[in-house]
C-alpha cells in the first residue's frame, strides 16, 4: 500500500519574509481526507568552523521565538538560486569574520518534517583566515570559541539547545575521533 | 549591551490545529525595529526505543511537507497539560505497540529557534513489552528495527534525514559505547 498523500486542495494562509504557510487538504491511503499545515522555508546552511588549534567557533544570539540567547553554529538561510556551499562561505564570513576557500559537506537533514520543508546543509570549514564580520542589520552576534570537549559537555548539560548545532558537533566529534 | 528584543507589536496571522503563526515587531538593541515571523508549536517528544537484543525501533511514515517517506524515531506532540514523559509512553505505544513502565530523559532541544519555539524532549525507552499499535486516524506507520551500526550507517549515507532522529541515535551511540 502506498503511503503517499495526494493534495486535493491547497490554501495559502500566510506569505512572509522568511516563511510562507499553507494548509493542504490531502487524501490518505484509505481515501479519507485530512489537513496538513505546512511552513515553507527556503532551506538553510550551518557551518562548523574549526580553527588551527581545533577549537569550534560558535555564535551567541538572541532568538525571539524562544526568548533566549542561544549558542549555535554560524548559519543562515539560502538566498534565491544560491548554491548551499556558497551560502556557507558567505554566512561564515558575515557572522564570524572568518574566511576559507573551501568547505566540506558533512550531512543534510530536515529540521521539522512534521510541519515544515526546511532542509539544513551542514558544512565543515577548516583552514580559516581572520577577517571582519558583517552581520545582517537585525542580527546581534557574539563569537565564542570552544574546545570539542567543552562543546560536548555543553550539549550534555543542556547549555547547547539548538538541533543543528547538536548534530554538527556530534557528527564532528565522531569524525574527529575516528580520523 | 543586552541582546534582547522587546516586542512592540504582535500580529496573529494564523491559528491552526497544530501550529499558530504570529509576526512580532521588535525593538533591537540599537533601537531600530525589525519583524520576526514566529511559528508557535506546543512542543513534542521523541522516543528512542531499544529492544532486549539492542535493536532500535524506528517508524516509517509519509511526511507531506517534504513529500517523502522518512525513517524516524517514534514521536508526537504534547497534549495540553500533558507531562512530556507521559506523552513519551503514550506515543511509543500508539505508534509502535511497544510498552514500557519508565523512560529515561536523554536531552531536549529547539528544532528551529530561528522561526519556531518548538522544543523536543528525547527519551530512551528500554525493557519493552509487545502490545498493539494504535496510531492516530490520519497516521500510516510502518515499524522497522535496526541495529545501532545499521542506524549509524543510514545517517552517514543520508537515508535517515530527520533531525530529532539523528540526534537521538548519535546520543544513544555515544552513551552505548561509553557504558
Strand order of the largest sheet of chain A: 7-4-10-9
Question: How large is the count of helical segments of chain A?
Answer: 3
On the 0 to 100 scale, the average pLDDT of chain A is 95
User: CATH superfamily of the largest domain in chain A, called what?
Assistant: Nucleoside Triphosphate Pyrophosphohydrolase
* Biggest sheet architecture of chain A: 4 strands, mixed
Strand coverage percent of chain A: 35-45%
InterPro entries (chains A, B): NUDIX_hydrolase_CS, NUDIX_hydrolase_dom
Protein name (chains A, B): NUDIX hydrolase
Domain Nudix hydrolase (chains A, B): 40-168
GO molecular function (chains A, B): hydrolase activity
Explain this structure to me?
Two copies of one chain form a homodimer. With 179 residues, chain A is of the alpha+beta class. Chain A has two domains: 6-40; 44-176, Nucleoside Triphosphate Pyrophosphohydrolase. Chain A is 21% helix and 41% strand. Chain A has three helices and twelve strands; from the N terminus they run E-E-E-E-E-E-E-H-E-E-E-E-E-H-H. The first copy, chain A, has helices at 84-96, 148-156, 163-178, and strands at 6-15, 20-27, 33-40, 44-49, 55-63, 68-72, 75-77, 98-99, 103-110, 119-125, 129-130, 142-147. In chain A, the strands form four sheets. A four-stranded mixed beta sheet of chain A has the order 7-4-10-9. A three-stranded antiparallel beta sheet of chain A has the order 1-2-3, with no helix packed on it. Chain A has a three-stranded antiparallel beta sheet with strand order 6-5-12. In chain A, strand 5 (55-63) and strand 6 (68-72) form a beta hairpin. In chain A, helix 2 crosses helix 3. Chain A is elongated and about 60 Å long. The N and C termini of chain A lie far apart (43 Å). The model of chain A has no long low-confidence stretch (mean pLDDT 95). At the A-B interface, strand 2, strand 3, strand 5, strand 6 and strand 9 of A face strand 2, strand 3, strand 5, strand 6 and strand 8 of B. Chains A, B: Its cofactor is Mg(2+). Chains A, B: This is NUDIX hydrolase.
Amino acid at each position: 500500500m502506498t503511503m503517499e498523500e495526494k493534495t486535493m486542495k491547497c490554501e495559502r494562509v500566510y506569505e512572509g519574509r522568511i516563511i510562507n504557510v499553507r494548509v493542504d487538504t490531502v487524501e490518505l491511503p484509505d481515501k479519507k481526507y485530512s489537513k496538513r499545515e505546512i511552513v515553507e522555508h527556503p532551506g538553510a546552511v550551518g557551518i562548523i568552523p574549526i580553527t588551527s588549534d581545533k577549537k569550534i567557533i560558535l555564535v551567541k544570539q538572541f532568538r525571539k521565538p524562544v526568548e533566549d540567547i542561544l549558542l549555535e553554529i554560524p548559519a543562515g538561510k539560502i538566498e534565491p538560486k544560491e548554491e548551499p556551499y556558497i551560502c556557507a562561505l558567505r554566512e561564515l564570513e558575515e557572522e564570524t569574520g572568518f574566511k576559507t576557500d573551501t568547505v566540506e559537506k558533512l550531512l543534510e537533514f530536515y529540521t521539522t518534517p512534521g510541519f515544515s520543508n526546511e532542509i539544513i546543509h551542514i558544512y565543515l570549514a577548516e583552514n580559516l583566515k581572520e577577517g571582519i564580520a558583517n552581520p545582517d542589520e537585525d542580527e546581534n552576534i557574539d563569537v565564542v570559541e570552544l574546545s570539542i570537549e567543552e562543546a560536548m559537555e555543553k550539549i550534555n548539560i543542556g547549555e547547547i539547545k539548538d538541533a543543528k548545532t547538536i548534530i554538527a558537533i556530534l557528527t564532528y566529534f565522531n569524525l574527529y575521533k575516528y580520523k
